[in-house]
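thread: overnight batch results

M.L. [08:02]
morning all. the overnight job finished for the chain we discussed friday. pasting input first so we're all looking at the same thing
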Amino acid sequence: MMPAVKFFPYNLRRLGLTLMLPSMFMGAIALSTNKISLAQTSPPTADSRPLTVRSDIQEADQKTGVITARGNVQLFYPARQIQATAAQAQYFSRERRIILTGNVYVLQNGNSIRGEQVVYLIDEGRFIAVPQANRQVESIYLVSDPNLNPQATPPPKVPTTTNRPQSNNRSPRGR
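M.L. [08:03]
and the structure it wrote out:
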């Protein structure tokens, strides 16, 4: 059992980490151009967009600016309409990229991508997917065709079958 003297500082550090992680995520994912993100040192600004990460374990390293979430990771980024699941997620605040690994599934505006590793480059709005060895990446995209008018295209004709009585195979001459 932990002595009462060590118990209080331990809980204080744990509480500090719990309060610090959401503010780091919120301040770090800012939609801006040619700006350096100072997520760990500056409070959230008006142009900040929340990124919610749920997982079994989360840790943040202020020296490197890397936030790691492990175990049943769920990522929600409403500003970019992104939802994702993975075994692990790492947010590199200085490079402004997110690396999802382990059975990754990403959904954005109805489009989806599956792979072993998916890198999201925040400033470019670009995904890079890598499959497991001897496997492939799978993507599903909703494609609209402005030239396709559903009212102008007639439905396909379905062949009709008529029930005719079966004839016996005898010819009239063979009677």
